[in-house]
Amino acid sequence: MSKSKPLDQSLGVTPLPVEAGEVGDGVSKDIQHDAVFGDITEDGPNYRNVGWLGTAVLMIKTQIGLGVLSIPSVFHTLGLIPGVIILIIIGGITTWSNYIVGVFKVNHREIYGIDDVGELLFGRIGREFFGAAFTLFFTFCSGSAMLSVSIALNALSMHAICTAIFVAIAAIITFVFSSIRTLGRISWLAWIGAICIIIAVFTVTIAVGLQDRPSTAPEEGVWKSDYKLFNQPSFSDAASAISSLVFSYAGTPAFFSISSEMRDPRHYTKALVVCQTVISTAYIVVGIVVYYYCGTYVSSPALGSAGPVVKKVAYGIALPGLFVTAILLTHIPSKYVFVRILRGSTHLTSNSTIHWMTWLGCTFGVTLTAYIIASAIPIFGGLVSLVGALLGTVLCFQPMGFMWLYDNWTKGKQDPTLKWRLMVIWCIFVIVSGTFLVVAGTYGSVDGIIASYRADGGTAAWSCADNSGST
Fold first, then answer.
1. Model confidence over 146-195: pLDDT tens digits?
2. How far apart are CA 150 and CA 129, in angstroms?
3. CB contact at 8 A, 45 and 352
4. Of 320, 434, 302, 458, nearest to 384 (Cα)?
5. 50-377 sits in which CATH class?
6. pLDDT of 97-136, one tens digit each?
7. How many C-beta atoms lie closer than 10 Å to residue 222's C-beta?
8. How many Å apart are CA 331 and CA 341, to the nearest integer?
9. Threshold 0.70, pTM exceeds
């Protein structure tokens, strides 16, 4: 390797002088110093090795696995036209939020997670609040992904074994692959996962357009889709539906971690454009087509909307993608805890025993917690909706409004321009709308949990019951 490289501060990596120590054959080593990870050498993992295409697919997989399968049922709740309009609005706001993540990371290279942002904005209280919210949110998302894997395995095997065993299998495989130490080496899994999920949902989308009627529709008589351009949901139902749309774009807080492992953060915006274009197109096309052809009989998850045969085919294609969702959503909070524990220590970027014990302890701890939450809580589905409404919006809207104000308020108010004034108004809108969605979404989720519990009491802990809806 070359012993010196031009200093490029915009990358957040500073080449240091060659160390006096020798590699085994007497060849000296390069050391790069990163503002987050410290000294990166050949003796440890390279945490700065994700290209822009890898970044784009990690972004896509972080988001598209969260909510694409619920979009058609959201359109059913809101009506087709309001559903599409609100989806575009939320997509636009979260795209701006994601962009601000990249800008803020370049301006503050020491930022690794949203807890670091919280400390800059609100001190120690902000750090602990956002750190806890981030960990809790993605741990619940990891548990939800494990349940999604169990649904797929049940659908494919016709409920061959107890569902609790399928969840345990999902947790074991998730632990093994989420323990890959760098996003650079996980990005190949993200490619597989994103492609599988997209092919699966478009398989269902095409199938519902070709079938005579949805699988759950009445079998007798002429059937015509009863889709609604406008619907009249209750406030609670509408709030829950909008929260689901926010949840579909709620990968934003993970983008801090992803951008921190990019080789060249200057390509962040290019990766973001690819990501948001792909997922927004998929959401709109899948949502409109599936709901248009299925109407009231749309399934959630959407993979069950085209009958048992297509359902099996779709789940078979989607299964690797569902596993990758669980893996990625476990790796991200594990990495956050790991970096927070070892940050500033040489063990962070070495292959030491302490490094490996801490890393595997983090991935095992997050996996086990997600598994226990997913398996033991009788109202897990409603609780995921509550966590998404309560924490998803808090992590995707308000911080980014404050982040722009933090970087631009002082210098802008000295000589305020029209652009600066409009941006201040926009940031206030993002903060206020995010706060409203937190309150409304939380209310809707709590109301839904109460209604669900009254109806069936939730599911039993470590249940063996088939959760795939197979008949």
1. 999 998 999 999 989 999 999 999 999 999 999 999 999 999 999 999 99
2. 32
3. no
4. 458
5. mainly alpha
6. 999 999 999 999 999 999 999 999 999 999 999 999 999 9
7. 6
8. 15
9. yes
